[in-house]
Structure formats: structure tokens, C-alpha cells
Amino acid sequence: MVNLPIEVQISSLPNSPGVYQFYDASETIIYVGKAKNLKKRVSSYFTKNHEYGKTRVLVKKIKSIKHIVVATESDALLLENNFIKKYQPRYNVLLKDDKSYPWICIKNERFPRIFPTRKLIKDGSEYFGPYTSMKTVKTLLELVKSVYPLRTCNYDLSVEKINSGKYKRCLEFHLGNCKAPCEGLQEAEEYHRQIDDIRDIIKGNFKSSLQYFKHQMKTFAENMEFEKAQRIKEKIEVLENYQVKSTVVNPKISDVDIFSIFSDETHAYINFLQVSHGLIIRSHTLEIKKKLEETDEELLQLAVVELRQRFKSDSKELYLPFPITITSSIKITVPKLGDKKKLLDLSTRNAKFFRQERFKQIKITDPDRHAKRIMAQMKSDLRLSEEPTHIECFDNSNIQGSNPVAACVVFRDGKSSKKEYRHYNIKTVEGPDDFASMEEVVFRRYKRLLNEDESLPQLIVIDGGKGQLSSALKSLDILGLRGKIAIIGIAKRLEEIYFPEDPIPLYLDKKSETLKIIQQLRNEAHRFGISFHRNKRSKAAINSELENIEGIGEKTAEQLLKRFKSVKRIREASVENLAKSIGMAKAKKVYESFH
Predict the structure, then answer these.
(1) What is the DSSP code (8-state) at residue 407?
(2) How far is the first Cα of the chain from the last one, in angstroms, to the nearest whole number?
(3) How many angstroms from the chain centroid is the CA of residue 190?
(4) Residue 164 DSSP SS3
(5) What angle do CA 16, 18, 23 make, to 5 degrees?
(6) Phi then psi dihedrals of residue 167, to 5 deg
(7) Phi and psi for 70 in degrees, rounded to 5?
(8) pLDDT computed for residue 178 by the predictor
(9) Which of 305, 463, 501, 530 is positioned for an S-S bond with 395, CB 3.0–4.6 A?
(10) Beta strands 415-416 and 422-425, pairing class
(11) CB atoms within 10 A of CB 458
């Protein structure tokens, strides 16, 4: 098949709503999209400068374009969703779901059984669901069975077979869990009234069941049948307790779907809450991996259609964080306050919680994806030109001006690389001068990396505010690295992030993973620097104690420490043992100074 030039294919597109499909050279569908105006939308792929690399790759691979015109934008959305699931194009977000969700089945029988199933059989039976977990199904069925006596056998309870006396009551009858319709002890009409109430309970409507039982309880009480009235009262309590646990907001809110979205650089998380008669009857979160430059609006639109189809929802009103186009028959509400806003906030919390749980799982099961996500987030948060897979952090350490030192710690892919840590003794600075010390150590570090042709970091973090950052920048200027390496400073008091030549600091969210990585770098550099400083001071103190002995110099003190490891062991050593290292004359002086 010979494809016409792309320009010619675009020129023949109509200015109508519809769905477009991009094909590569092998006639494989690689992307499906929807549009209000097909010509305008498809043209934009070839006229815009795309920042995102995958979009540029997609455009290069497009060899032919096909389209389907539809009546409305909402029709285009439905068709796009079906095409994505059917063809699973490489550059579309994935909407497939391999799960076989559980359902509650009310079997099409004379005395219907109720049971959980993962298979839908078209035999006239009713199916409620799907549910997101079997635990929810079992909880509902336990509630139903604790209130209503239902059969569990799979006998054919036709009139003829019951009348012939083919079946005998079982243990379930004697336990009070079944009224033995198999022997004709329960009428089909009464049994079906129970089934009607159970349908309502599964849908979240307890009203008719509660009214029936309260009327029954009152009748038994009036007839002095108090034991029966007590049993009915217990059933009412079971229903009311379950209803209280399930009620989250105003019971007037009924038959509503709530959707929220929370996204990062690579994924989006859409939570779906289904409310019926004031009860949340379903909660499900969908994780979508971004493929191109999809906006939250586009992803939410796709997810709403997909989740409503998947869970057979026919609610006529949606609560959303922002308006989107679905169909004219569905009311879109963007709550700002009150019970509706509380429901939307609850949905958002569910999406965020799901994301956190996924991160915990991914950190263990897929560390590469975890690291990639963290790097993408840091790039976005810190406005970097590339992902900071190699970060270095500097910290000065001096106490009361003595023994000034500095530390450099290295992180790769968000994790510490301890073998690359470096200590520095400050050589050119007199006294406690943090700014000059920072200038010296940054210069020495990158002068050496340049001389040895080692790789440079994508990001430098300076422990300190504007002053320390300016000092580090002087060294990068001298080395010609200004603008080639991103550099920031972090001030301790309010965790302010400073950028070169920007007087206004950046304040990251306290729970931000980017801030946590920067804090971890800063704390690790501080710990590493302090431990080196402490060792240096300790060694200086030991040397000074030995050097205070008349006739013992620095070299002799080092010899003794090399052999005996500590001043305590030197103090406890005999003259003969000391003499083996430094000779008898000096050994006597050391021994006499301690004794």
C-alpha cells in the first residue's frame, strides 16, 4: 500500500468531531485519539515543537492517518476508549484490566440461590457488581444470610419434585438457616419477597427491609410472642449497624459517582467512589502510566468512561475536581464545600493512599522504576534540564574555629554511594570562614574531576543559604562550569531552596520526595563531616598529650600510637615494651611521665 504524503492526508480531514488513528510503516496502529475538530487536532502534531521526547518519536513514526467521524464529542470519547482497549496502541495509556472481578449472583431459579462468582452466565440470572474485592462480597453475603434464611443446596425445586417428596430437610433447617422450601415448608411468594429485600440491601437501600422487620417485631410483641420479637429485633440491629458503618455523608446524596485524580511525572491515579442511598458501595483506584503529554483532564475523561463501563454504573450525576465533557445526559458537579466536597476529598485521599502503597511495593519489587520516578520528580520540582541521577552535596564542619574540614557525599539514582564520599582538610583558609571554605572545597573537588576526566554531577547541593551558594558559584565560574551543572543551596531554618541569581527561595511541600532526598543528602554530608572532624580533634588531643612529655615529639607520638593504638595502653605498657618502639631513653621518659 502506497501512503500519500502526510500533508495531503491531513488536508483531507474534516473539521468535525471524531476519532483518529495513527499507523506506522508496517500498518500497525500506534496511537488513537479523539478530537472536537479532527483537522485542527491532527495538524497540531506536525506543527508544534514537542518538548516531550516520546511525542517527537511518535510523530516521526506516523506514516498514515485514518479517522472516523461521529456526531458529538462524547461519542468520540466512547469510541476512543473502545479502540484503546481493543488495539492497545503503543503510545496510548493502558486501560486493560486482567482482573476477574467477583460478582454476587441471584440465580434464575424458582427459589433463587445467592452466591459469589467470577463468571457471568447468560441464563436470566441477576448479577450485582463487579466488586473490587472478594472481602466486600463475603461481608455483604454474611449480612444477608444472618438476616434472611436462604437455601444453599442446588436441588431443582420444581412444584412436581417438591410434591413428590423427593427431598428431605437438611442440617441447615435444624440450624435455623433455611425454612426447607424443598419440603414445601416455605412458599415461593414469601421467599421472593426476601429476595426483593436482598436486592435493595445489595444496592445500599435498607429502608424496605427495616420497615418490614419493624412491622413484624411490633406484631409479634402485640401478640405476646416476645422470643420471636427479640429475634426480629436482633436482625434490625444487624442491618442498622451495617448501615451506620457504611454511611459516610449525607444520606440525601444518592446514586452519584465520584472521581478524583492525583498525578506525578510518570503516572496518574484515578479513584472512583460509587454512592447509593448515602452509602459508599464501591471504591476502586485505577493506575495509568503516562505515554505522551497527557493532561489530567484527558486522563480523567478516559478513566471515567472506562470505570463506568467496567462497573456497570448508570448514575446520572458525577462529582469531579474539574469539569470534563462526557455526555449531555450526565450532570457534572464540581463541589466547593459541604458534604459533596467531603466526598471528593475522601476520593482524593484514596488516590493518594493508593499511590503511596504502590510506591512501597515498587521500591521492593522494581527499584529501577522507583529510582526513575524519583529522578523525574526531582527534575520537575527543581526545574532542572535533566534528571539528577548523580548528585553531590557539600558541608563545612568546624567547632569553635578548630580543625576546619569539609565533606562531600555522593548520591546516584537517589541512593548514597558511600565509596565516592570524600573528606577535605581546609588548607587555604585561616579561622572559621564558611564562605571561603566552601569556595575552596568546591574548587578542589571539580578541578580534580576535570583533570582526571571523571563524570560531573547533574546537581550540586550546598548546605547553606545564599552566602554559601554564592561562594560555590565563584569556584564554578573559575572552572568554567557555571551553567553546565545545576546548583542549589538549602537553608536549615525553613528548608528554603535557593537558586543562583534568584532572591526568592523555593519552598517544597514538607512531604515532597524531592525535599526528602535533599534533606537526606544534607544530613548525610553533615554526619560524614562531623565524624571526620571528631576523629581529627580526638587524634589532635591524643598527640598533644604525648607531645607534652619532655623529649617526645610528633614523630615519636605517632610511633607509639601505631604500636599501642591508644594512650591507655601506652600508660599500662612496661618500659621494656615501650623501648622496643622508641628506644630505652625515650621509653623511660614516657614511663616516668605516667607513673
Answers:
(1) E
(2) 102
(3) 50
(4) coil
(5) 120
(6) -110, 155
(7) -125, 170
(8) 87
(9) 463
(10) unpaired
(11) 20
71: CB partners within 8 A, 6+ apart: 17
Residues 416 and 238: their CA atoms lie apart, in Å, by 55
Express each pLDDT in 278-290 by its tens digit.
667 777 888 888 8
Q: 405 near 395, Cβ under 8 Å?
A: no
Question: Alpha-carbon distance 379 to 520, whole Å?
Answer: 17
C-alpha–C-alpha distance, residues 472 and 422, integer Å: 17
Distance CA 162, CA 182 (A): 6
pLDDT at 277: 67
Beta-sheet strand order (sheet of 317-319): 279-289, 267-276, 256-263, 317-319, 331-333
Amino acid 403: pLDDT: 60
**pLDDT given for residue 398 in this prediction:** 58
Cα of 568 vs its chain's centroid, Å: 55
Residue 116: exposure state from Cβ atoms within 10 A (0-12, 13-18, ≥19): middle
Contact 150, 178 (CB under 8 A): yes
Residues in the chain: 595
Cα–Cα distance for residue pair 169/179, rounded to 1 Å: 9
Residues with Cβ within 8 Å of 461's Cβ and at least 6 positions away in sequence, in order, are 391, 392, 393, 394, 487, 488, 489, 490, 518, 521, 522
Interacting residues of 42 by C-beta distance below 8 A, sequence separation 6+: 10, 13, 20, 35, 65, 67
Query: In DSSP terms, which residues pair with 106 in a beta bridge?
Result: 114, 126
Q: Which amino acid is at 51?
A: E
| pLDDT attached to residue 260 | 93
User: Of 565, 79, 482, which Cα lies nearest the Cα of 302?
Assistant: 79
Which residue from 30, 50, 39 is spatially nearest to 7, judged by alpha carbons? 39
Helices 434-451/466-478 angle, 10° precision? 30
Q: Residue 156: how many CA atoms within 13 Å on its side-chain side?
A: 4
Q: Which stretches of 203-295 are DSSP H helices?
A: 207-222, 226-246
Cα 138 to Cα 115: distance, rounded to the nearest angstrom: 9
- Determine contact, residues 282/258, Cβ cutoff 8 Å: no
CB 86 within 8 A of CB 100: no
Q: For the chain, which residues score pLDDT lower than 70?
A: 1-3, 50-52, 95-100, 129, 132-133, 204, 239-251, 277-279, 398-403, 430-432, 531-548, 550-551, 553-554, 561, 565-567
* Ramachandran sector of residue 544 (left: φ over 0; alpha: ψ -120 to 50; beta: rest): alpha
Residue that the C-alpha cell 412444584 belongs to: 159
Strand partners, 391: 411, 459
